[in-house]
């Protein structure tokens, strides 16, 4: 059938060609390939555009001739009778003698999908991508897992994308999960045609602008958008998470892991956790949820696929025993689970900054606290919208029963992370206050020392000024031991002043 649609075995389904702005031929039908809009209203206009030849019977069926007229009204010519009959045989699989609305929808869907795989179209699109993006043209990798309680089949990456797109979910599989790594517009359009994705949902994926998480319900599917972050070095992040947890619950005969760290070790570890080295920038994760199919689209590869693959490989796991709703919960749960080690790593960073401040307040760089606070605030900004989105999921009709209990657990987890961020921000503010207090104390100590020194030498300054005056008759200047007497008087006054401060005023 695909060969027929692509015109490789005849000309029964020739598409019109127009010149694109770049001069390349672009196959077109009435609905745009660049922005798939397989909406029922659009197809209904195609049927209505067929004129009197398109007559819908009481059973909601269209005759073969009416079907041909409807295709022609949408810009698809079917001149060869034999190949049109072959096409009819593919569309009217129940041999009812007419075309139902769903069969008509399926036919247009197949034609558009074949067009998206045609070599001319793909080459023209690749040239357009090269012109716009240069060597950074978008590339997507496709993976799939089909599973049931007693059987599972996975493929990653999928090499035969065209064959996979035309394939159907096996009868034995209760769920098909399709994961896309990378936002390739061509791949998204193929998926949009194959699974009748709403154009607004596809646009949200292709034009990711890190908007708030949201959940939308459409006629054919539901759409879920999340903002996710990942640890730069998961192994190192888990190590710091363990250290931070150990520092929170120290027994009487133990000390915090950070207490025995030298200044050099603290500096080295803090350099490892410098700004931008703990977590990645936020990325968008889009989910399309259908009865038995879930499509996830990530901007870049992450740990989500291997983590969920490990869960799915366990035949008795909850995700294997349930449908798409529990798979959606599992995806959200994996995304939230990645936040906790990151938050605890920031906790370890704050603890090490606190220890470094106690080591030497004079050389402490308070700008480190400002940068750390900025990163923690960035993590916190993800929590509140995510919690609100989970509430929206729980209030929808798409999730019910035991799945709601699991979503509440995820919501509680997000709340804990949010509260952890609040505590860390409070600790950062407290450390800033401690730094300023230490600086003020240091300044006060310096002023105190200078004042004591000035007070001790004040009598000497007085005597120096007195005997430095140019009076003619100053008997003391003629004494044989006048110099020693001056030092003796000065030392006596200084010793008396120091003794007064030390023993009477207790200032020393």
Automatic annotation (TrEMBL):
Q: Quick one: where's region Disordered?
A: 1-30
Q: Which UniProt keywords apply?
A: Cell membrane, Ion transport, Magnesium, Membrane, Transmembrane, Transmembrane helix, Transport
Membrane-topology descriptor: Multi-pass membrane protein
GO terms for CC? plasma membrane
Q: GO terms for molecular function, please?
A: calcium ion binding; cobalt ion binding; cobalt ion transmembrane transporter activity; magnesium ion binding; magnesium ion transmembrane transporter activity
PROSITE patterns annotated for this entry? EF_HAND_2
Question: Residue limits of the EF-hand domain?
Answer: 79-114
Transmembrane region positions? 446-464, 484-503
Q: Key word Amino-acid biosynthesis present in the record?
A: no
What function does the entry list? Mediates influx of magnesium ions. Alternates between open and closed states. Activated by low cytoplasmic Mg(2+) levels. Inactive when cytoplasmic Mg(2+) levels are high.
Tell me what this protein is called.
Answer: Unnamed protein product
Species of the source: Phytophthora fragariaefolia
């Amino acid at each position: 059938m695909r060969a027929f649609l692509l015109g490789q075995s005849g000309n029964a389904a020739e598409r019109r060609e127009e010149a694109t702005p770049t001069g390349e031929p672009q196959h077109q039908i009435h609905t745009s390939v660049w922005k798939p809009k397989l909406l029922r209203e659009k197809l209904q206009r195609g049927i209505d555009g067929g004129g009197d030849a398109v007559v819908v019977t009481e059973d909601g069926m269209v005759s073969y001739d009416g079907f041909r007229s409807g295709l022609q009204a949408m810009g698809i010519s079917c001149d060869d009778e034999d190949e049109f009959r072959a096409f009819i045989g593919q569309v009217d699989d129940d041999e009812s003698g007419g075309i139902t609305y769903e069969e008509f929808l399926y036919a247009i869907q197949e034609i558009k999908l074949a067009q998206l795989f045609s070599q001319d179209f793909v080459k023209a699109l690749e040239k357009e991508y090269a012109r716009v993006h240069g060597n950074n043209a978008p590339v997507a990798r496709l993976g799939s897992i089909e599973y049931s309680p007693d059987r599972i089949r996975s493929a990653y990456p999928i090499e035969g994308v065209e064959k996979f797109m035309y394939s159907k979910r096996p009868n034995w599989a209760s769920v098909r999960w399709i994961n896309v790594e990378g936002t390739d517009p061509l791949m998204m359009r193929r998926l949009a045609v194959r699974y009748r994705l709403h154009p607004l949902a596809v646009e949200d994926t292709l034009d990711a602008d890190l908007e708030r998480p949201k959940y939308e319900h459409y006629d054919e599917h539901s759409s879920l958008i999340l903002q996710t972050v990942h640890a730069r070095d998961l192994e190192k992040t888990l190590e710091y998470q363990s250290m931070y947890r150990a520092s929170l619950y120290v027994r009487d005969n133990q000390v915090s892991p950070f207490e025995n760290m030298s200044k050099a070790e603290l500096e080295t570890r803090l350099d490892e956790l410098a700004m931008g080295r703990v977590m990645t920038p936020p990325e968008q994760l889009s989910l399309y949820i259908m009865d038995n199919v879930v499509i996830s689209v990530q901007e870049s590869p992450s740990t989500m696929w291997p983590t969920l693959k490990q869960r799915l490989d366990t035949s008795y796991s909850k995700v294997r025993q349930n449908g798409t709703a529990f798979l959606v919960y599992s995806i959200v749960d994996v995304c939230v689970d990645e936040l906790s080690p990151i938050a605890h790593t920031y906790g370890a960073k704050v603890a090490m900054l606190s220890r470094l401040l106690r080591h030497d307040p004079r050389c402490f760089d308070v700008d480190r606290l400002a940068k750390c606070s900025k990163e923690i605030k960035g993590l916190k900004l993800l929590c509140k919208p995510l919690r609100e989105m989970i509430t929206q999921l729980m209030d929808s009709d798409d999730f019910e029963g035991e799945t709601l209990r699991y979503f509440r657990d995820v919501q509680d987890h997000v709340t804990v992370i949010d509260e952890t961020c609040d505590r860390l921000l409070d600790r950062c503010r407290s450390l800033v206050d401690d730094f300023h207090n230490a600086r003020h104390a240091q300044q006060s100590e310096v002023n105190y020392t200078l004042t004591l020194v000035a007070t001790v030498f004040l009598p000497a300054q007085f005597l120096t000024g007195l005997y430095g005056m140019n009076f003619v008759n100053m008997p003391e200047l003629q004494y044989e031991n006048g110099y020693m007497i001056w030092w003796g008087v000065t030392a006596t006054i200084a010793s008396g002043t120091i003794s007064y401060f030390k023993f009477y005023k207790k200032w020393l």
